[in-house]
């Protein structure tokens, strides 16, 4: 077990002193854990109560998970890997994708704040790219009880100081350090991310009109209103199209040959 970063984090972080929002108000740091999402899932499925927004942060995950059963493997102590539970009962279950929009915007804005000179964008549905390379991914796992929310587990991975990556995704992986050629303080970045998470979660809770959030999401979405090539999984064809929208179910709406077609995860692939 490696404890060096755990000690560093616990010495330096004073989250409770200045963190006004709910996300980050409690912080539990594990030097090693299988997956922060799995930890929360197990705990919440046993009905062990946990305050909304309590963050489980791992110095090292041994079985980090990504979307669609992929693996999220990052080097110990060099990145941010954390999860927290939300109980967004103010959202109807038809509106689940709004949580994705809010969390994506929070991570996008955090990275833009730390790296103002770089091109930061969202790749649908919620990868965050720096200079067209993937620097962050999120795994949002919702549990419903009938027609009401039970809980949502939000897991976020942000590549900060890691310089090389084993698994190359379609959009090759990068980190803050690779793009900006300097070392970043994990504590500081984490505090900035919590600030934006709290801002956007409050926006979702308090706002009666989410059109502005949606427009900000679209304005930062890779390929929005631009002609791009896509591989359509069903047909196997590569087609040109223009992203027009993301609907209430989170489907990507692309105009292809004058018609709007809607796609779910893995049904369409960007051709860079
Ligand atoms: C993806 O892009 O495929 C999503 C990656 C999500 C990774 C984070 S790291 C913290 C949390 N714990 C996990 O096991 N996964 C998420």
SSE blueprint and pairings:
Layout: H1 4-12, H2 15-18, E1 27-30, H3 36-45, E2 55-58, E3 80-86, H4 97-114, E4 120-123, E5 127-130, E6 133-145, E7 148-158, H5 176-180, H6 186-206, H7 211-219, E8 227-232, E9 238-246, E10 252-256, E11 259-263, E12 268-271
Helix pairs in contact: 4-6, 4-7
Bound molecules: biotin (BTN).
Q: What's this entry about, in short?
A:
With 272 residues, this protein is an alpha+beta fold. It is 28% helix and 28% strand.
Residue share in helix: 25-40%
Termini separation: 40 Å
What's the mean pLDDT score?
90
Strand content: 25-35%
Strand neighbour order, sheet with most strands: 1-2-3-7-6-5-4
Number of helices: 7
How many runs of DSSP E, i.e. beta strands? Answer: 12
Q: Biggest β-sheet: count, sense, barrel?
A: 7 strands, mixed
Ions, cofactors and other bound molecules: biotin
Radius of gyration, Cα only, in angstroms?
Answer: 18 Å
Shape: globular
> What class do helices, strands and sheet pairing give?
alpha+beta
| H-E order | HHEHEEHEEEEHHHEEEEE
Point out poorly predicted stretches. 1-8, 11-18
Description:
The chain contains seven helices and twelve strands. It is an alpha+beta fold. Residues 1-8 and 11-18 have low confidence and may be disordered. The chain is globular, with a radius of gyration of 18 Å. The longest helix is centred in the last third of the chain and has 21 residues, at 186-206. The strands form two sheets. It has a seven-stranded mixed beta sheet, sandwiched between helices. The structure holds biotin. The site of biotin has 20 residues, from helix 3, strand 3, strand 6 and strand 7.
């Amino acid at each position: 077990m490696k404890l060096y970063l755990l000690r560093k984090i616990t010495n330096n972080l004073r989250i409770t002193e200045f963190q006004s929002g709910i996300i980050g108000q409690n912080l539990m740091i594990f030097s090693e854990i299988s997956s922060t999402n799995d930890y929360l899932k197990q705990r919440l499925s046993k009905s062990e109560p946990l305050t909304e927004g309590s963050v489980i942060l791992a110095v090292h995950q041994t079985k980090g998970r990504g979307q669609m059963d992929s693996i999220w493997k990052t080097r110990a102590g060099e990145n941010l890997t954390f999860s927290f539970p939300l109980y967004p009962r103010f959202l109807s279950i038809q509106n689940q994708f709004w949580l994705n929009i809010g969390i994506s915007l929070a991570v996008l804005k955090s990275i833009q704040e730390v790296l103002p000179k770089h091109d930061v964008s969202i790749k649908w549905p919620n990868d965050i790219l720096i200079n067209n390379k993937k620097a962050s991914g999120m795994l949002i796992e919702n549990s419903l009880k009938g027609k009401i929310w039970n809980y949502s587990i939000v897991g976020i991975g942000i590549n900060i100081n890691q310089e090389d990556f084993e698994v190359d995704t379609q959009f090759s992986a990068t980190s803050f350090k690779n793009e900006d050629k300097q070392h970043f303080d994990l504590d500081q970045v984490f505090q900035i991310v919590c600030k934006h998470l709290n801002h956007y979660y409050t926006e979702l809770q308090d706002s009666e009109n989410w059109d502005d959030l949606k427009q900000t999401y679209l304005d930062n979405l890779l390929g929005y209103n631009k002609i791009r090539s896509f591989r359509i999984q069903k047909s196997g064809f590569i087609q040109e199209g223009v992203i027009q929208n993301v609907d209430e179910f989170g489907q990507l709406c692309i105009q292809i040959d004058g018609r709007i077609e809607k796609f779910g995860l893995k049904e369409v692939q960007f051709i860079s």
